[in-house]
């Protein structure tokens, strides 16, 4: 994987010699005499590390460092031949990742580059791990949908937004019919496959702004922002039909149906009341013979 390094120095001899050395060391190196030209280059190109002298015509190296840290994902090594005028602390406070004195020793520069790049990779890996852990914390292991903990965070946020802007918000509660019988008949492994497949079919019926959750056991819920009860009923019927399509890997596909409750948020309603009302609508669907969609607005 190519590593891109940008050299900024108004001394042509130094600039060219550093660029040549970096190229020999298998970096992809670019060089410019001014901060302004470097910034123009960054607008259209990714750079991993920038080596900049402090004293430049126009914007100086410390100002460039600050600008890059505020606007780009690049690490910076500051160079200077004026040790008495500039300090390591000043450069670091501006956002520099390292600091070297001129005349630059190429071997030292390469070591510092490797150290900055190593730190950069460790930071990225740490960020990836944190994001992965965050995702795991809100994701159901079996279905890969969001979990109920995250549902309560999101529904509160959507209810607040609905109330603030007067926009419609609807909720679906989906229960797999006679799931205990299915598990007892075909086993929990086959039951888990059913839940995973149903989760896929639910998400296939949703818009980007909609979110689906495993609410617990064989229950799922869907948050539908900007959606009236009438429109939510259409989504619910679509999900109901999608679930009934043949499950090629399931012993008896005729057993797989869902009952769905639909409700629209009432301004001022609590989360508990909103969910309970949707749950009641789902039980109405059950009482209607299962494999039904029912709504409850009051």
Give the SSE layout.
Layout: E1 4-8, H1 12-24, E2 28-32, H2 35-42, E3 49-53, H3 61-71, E4 75-80, H4 88-93, E5 98-101, H5 106-137, H6 148-165, E6 169-176, H7 179-186, H8 188-204, E7 211-216, E8 219-225, H9 229-243, E9 258-264, H10 271-287, E10 293-295
Parallel strand pairs: 1-2, 1-3, 3-4, 4-5, 9-10
Antiparallel strand pairs: 6-8, 6-9, 7-8
Can you summarize this structure?
The chain has 298 residues and is an alpha/beta fold.
Structure commentary:
With 298 residues, the protein is an alpha/beta fold. The protein has 2 domains: 4-135, 3-Layer(aba) Sandwich (Rossmann fold); 148-295, Reverse transcriptase/Diguanylate cyclase domain (Alpha-Beta Plaits), CATH 3.30.70. The chain has helices spanning 12-24, 35-42, 61-71, 88-93, 106-137, 148-165, 179-186, 188-204, 229-243, 271-287, and strands at residues 4-8, 28-32, 49-53, 75-80, 98-101, 169-176, 211-216, 219-225, 258-264, 293-295. A 5-stranded parallel β-sheet has the order 2-1-3-4-5, sandwiched between helices. A 5-stranded mixed β-sheet has the order 7-8-6-9-10, with helices on both faces. The termini are far apart.
Question: Which structural class should the secondary elements be placed in?
Answer: alpha/beta
CATH superfamily membership of the largest domain: Reverse transcriptase/Diguanylate cyclase domain
Terminal-residue CA separation? 60 Å
Strand sequence of the main sheet, in spatial order? 2-1-3-4-5
Beta-strand percentage range: 15-25%
Question: Total number of β-strand segments?
Answer: 10
Provide the helix percentage. 40-55%
What kind of sheet is the major sheet? Answer: 5 strands, parallel
